[in-house]
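Hey,
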Amino acid sequence: MHKWIVPRLGDPKEVLEWQESAVPEVEDGKLLIQVEASSLNFFDILLCQGNYQEKPPLPFTPGAEIAGIVRWAGNGSRFKVGQRVIATPPLPNGGLAEWVNVPEESVYAISASMSPEEAAAMFITYQTSYYALYNRANLQEGEVLLVHAGAGGVGSAAIQLGKARGAKVIATAGGPDKARICKELGADIAIDYLTEDFIDIVKKETGGRGADVIYDPVGGDVFDRSRKCIAFDGRLLVIGFASGRIPDAPANHALVKNYSIVGVHWGLFRRLYPDKAAAIHKDLMRLYEQGKIRPLIYREYDFKEVPEALEVLAKRRTYGKLTVSPR
């Protein structure tokens, strides 16, 4: 088999090496999976550079999400040989490989109608958005949801899950093409933040009341300005800081406007409550089969194009998710 390895730290195009390797040996408690597709995340770039909070020993194989076929399962496994699954291979043996050996608790069955690329692109983004909107914010039918970076991976999932819950969804994105994508995903209102003021539009669309739930994976100025258009009893979800600046939150402002600033650390939630994450996955499969959610994929790359794909991702000009397949 082949896999990508990082023998030294640096930019992906400079350090990633295409290496031939033996298929992993089977182990009790793990599943041997033949990879059909892997998805790429921005933190794969940070891992290669040594700038991510997790620092696996060198050499390592990046890749957090794969879709594939179970080729070996031990006695008593809840999975069967030939079954199609999503898996999250732990570092240092990540998913940018043609075969992976994954602990059974990190593997989830998928719908038979789901393509490998959709499956690989689904897990982290939809789990994060589901947990944020349904568990942390308790989003209700008829509420107004403002989604920032709506054409991104987690943002596109949030738009679809917001509509699935019956919310009115307002989404922001950078540029007319990305705003159009938000509308195609189901957003009721799409705002091009490069030319429009989302504060004014949110207030206009809500009669001055503001958004009940704000989904913010951007941070920085977006967080600061979101506080100006949040409703009484609103919930401002802190998903991440793609802008690079971690904002401050004046406690007196939250008191006066009576809103909550809600942290969303899905990774820790999954580690602490794996059964609840599995229940979320089951419900996401139901929503997929009902046609209410479908992963947004920017482009499907060949497995040998991983360095080029990560370079495209690093420029932040993409939408949705990027996937690679060992065709």
